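#lab-general

N.A. 3:47 PM
ok so I finally got the sequence cleaned up, no stray characters, all 343 residues accounted for. can someone with queue access submit it? mine expired

B.Y. 3:52 PM
send it over

N.A. 3:53 PM
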Amino acid sequence: MHKLLTLLKNNRLLKTNKQVRKYSTDEKLNLTFFFFFLIWGYSTEVIRGLRDVRPAHYLFKIDNFSSLLSTEIDKYESSDFEVSGYKWKLRLFPKGVNEDNKHISLYLVLSKSKSIPFHKEVNVYFKLFVYNQIQDKYLTVQDAKGRMSRFRGTKTEFGFDQLLALSVFNDASNGYLVDDCCIFGAEIFVVEPIIKGELASVVKDLSNNTYTWNVEKFSELEQEKVAEVFVIGGYKWSLFLYPNGDLEDKDKSLSLFLSLEEDLNPGHTLFVQFVLRVKDQLHGEHHEKTDSNFFCASNNWSWGFQDLISLSKLNDASKGYLINGVMILEVQISLITEVEDFS
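B.Y. 4:20 PM
back already:
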């Protein structure tokens, strides 16, 4: 240990008699602490380090600390403090919780846990701190694997049996207990469970996923025309045709929309991918566009295209879209996903 500290003070670590890297002051301190705690037999399940920034949520200062050691008091608790809507407190065992009485033990406690329903749990990432008054830094102690602590009715405290060795803590030259005063701290990050979500289920049976609509006497149509109701994927649909366009595409394009013709339960949504197509009856070079959108219970919107095909292109006899006044429209539904909200 003495050789390691000497190497660190000289700002170098040796490997096969070669200088491999220079370390900053903070890095040297953290390396010193790492090897120090390793030699003292601290658990490798815990990470310790030094930092400048004070704890974000709570500081717990104790004056006349030696008085706790001279009494029969096994533990000492802070007042309640609130983080993320929950009451917490720090529970300190100045003589430790193990029989060897060689370490200070510190725990984070979910206070007033009886007010929390039995089935509820509070999931938390937390860090505990001891202030080094000489270095003006905070010794940070946390779980090495980043595991979440599950506070609940049957388990209301988590912490560290071996927060710091009493021999280290009581030595004023180490900076943790100075003028019989010490300071502990806590940072608590509550992970709230997901209270809302959705279940998505893809409809498997789409073997008959195309509907063909022969629109006769197209040139005579002036108003909106609706196709007969058809079934794809177990749901009822229809097509809305605007022969002379809709809204800003009025007299410019043919507009065509897919509409769901049945009511969905509240919280139930369909995500649908589909193709709207105008068939070329001469060359087989069909004109089509693809869309995907949500059909839900809160609206009766139709989805499609105001500008599926321009009227000039549609009426060009060489294109084959209109033969003897007949236009053939198709809708092909390639995907239906049933989405249901849950909470």
